[in-house]
Specification:
Elements lengths: L1 H49 L4 E7 L5 H17 L4 E6 L2 H9 L11 H10 L4 E6 L6 H15 L8 H6 L4 E4 L6 H12 L2 H7 L3 E6 L13 H13 L3 E5 L7 H8 L3 E6 L2 E6 L8 E6 L6 H7 L8 H7 L3 E3 L27 H15 L18
Parallel strand pairs: 1-2, 1-3, 3-4, 5-6, 5-9, 9-10
Antiparallel strand pairs: 7-8
């Protein structure tokens, strides 16, 4: 009898525990949904308050948690507004980690950024008739593909049923995606020419080696040739001056150690995705000085830590200096005014998007995207796409 009573009590405890656990899961789901809805309402409020046109450009950056990066993004938005009159301009982050850390106030005061899904939903609910989603990525890698093939595709498929068929039909061929900075090999040539004309880059090149640090994608996840743009950029830069080098923090065979090996000269074979690539670095470079530059839209964690940290033995700065090359990661030759006084007079790492000449390249991609509106090169919605 005692055993039966014990079993009954144990069963009741189990049921109560299961119910409590279930309630906890429901609470978690409700909290998640509550946060999602709250964020959506915040973006809706912003769009409703700022909407002044039927045309919109949504800029999509990976994101950051550095004040310098926030300033850069503000500058990009302001530049777009000045160069695209008649278009409303908004900015989104594609990285959930950056969004959450920015909201939590990592490194700086808390600031709210939102992902493309929230922005596209608000844009649709506001009834915009022409939509350009412009990537602020450097290569057509993982982040760009996710924006194009997930966020934008889900929006065009009306995934959450937020919009009427009438509205979705009105968007047919009225939505386009602007490509990254080096979407094509020709873009790598254009960027090489642009960077070579920058005053601070020219000043550094006159003293020795100039090495650019990009991000890259892990090898094996090359995303249709994104990584190869770094090698093409380097090839075009070295055709201008053999003191140029390009590497990444996330791509086999182009880490800092590999860049130093390339400085040592010789011919190198690369395997980039399914493609082979060969570069001739010639004789060893005898230069004993180098300047590092970041090849990313902003100067954030990678720039200040992976590239410039003098206390990290594995940073580019430390590895270059350990190899006997007197190397600088910060500079004082950046000629464009820094728009935040907190950096005034200090050494600086400029991101690509801080360079007005490079911002123009992104804006050229936006103009190319706008030219596709109303044509078969724009996106179709399922309600109007051909069934053939």
């Amino acid at each position: 009898m005692k055993q039966i009573k014990f079993l009954m009590l144990a069963m009741m405890a189990f049921i109560a525990s299961a119910a409590f656990t279930s309630c906890n899961k429901d609470d978690d789901n409700n909290n998640t949904q509550s946060n999602y809805d709250r964020y959506q309402q915040a973006v809706n409020k912003t769009v409703n308050a700022q909407k002044s046109s039927s045309k919109v450009i949504l800029l999509v950056a990976f994101g950051s948690t550095w004040e310098q990066a926030y300033d850069t993004f503000d500058k990009v938005v302001d530049d777009y507004k000045a160069n695209f009159p008649g278009w409303d301009v908004y900015l989104s982050f594609s990285s959930a980690i950056c969004i959450n850390n920015a909201r939590a106030g990592e490194n700086v005061d808390p600031k709210d950024y939102y992902d493309p899904e929230h922005w596209l939903t608000a844009i649709g609910l506001a009834g915009y008739q022409q939509i350009v989603v412009q990537s602020l990525q450097v290569i057509p890698g993982e982040e760009y593909r996710r924006v194009r093939d997930s966020y934008v595709k889900d929006f065009m498929n009306n995934r959450n049923g937020d919009f009427t068929d009438v509205y979705m039909k009105s968007l047919d061929r009225n939505v386009v995606v602007g490509t990254p900075l080096m979407a094509e090999e020709s873009d790598a040539l254009t960027l090489a020419t642009t960077l070579n004309n920058e005053a601070d880059v020219k000043a550094a090149l006159a003293n020795g080696i100039v090495a650019f640090m990009g991000h890259g994608n892990p090898e094996g996840y090359d995303y249709y040739g994104g990584n190869i743009r770094y090698l093409q950029l380097e090839e075009y830069l070295r055709a201008i001056n053999p003191n140029y080098y390009v590497g990444t923090v996330d791509m086999d065979e182009t880490y800092a150690e590999d860049v130093l090996a390339h400085i040592g000269g010789g011919i190198y074979d690369f395997e980039v995705g399914d493609m082979g690539y060969r570069q001739n670095y010639g004789e060893p470079n005898q230069s004993k000085k180098a300047q590092l530059f970041v090849l990313m839209s902003i100067a954030g964690d990678h720039a200040h830590n992976d590239m410039a940290d003098d206390e990290d033995d594995e940073s580019w700065y430390s590895l270059f200096n350990a190899a006997g090359i007197e190397t600088a990661a910060y500079e004082t030759n950046f000629t464009e005014a820094c728009w935040k006084k907190y950096k005034s007079g200090e050494e600086y790492i400029p991101g690509l998007a801080e360079r007005s000449a490079v911002r123009k390249l992104w804006m050229n991609h936006t103009r190319q995207a706008i030219a596709k509106l109303g044509t078969d090169e724009a996106l179709s919605t399922p309600t109007t796409a051909s069934e053939d």
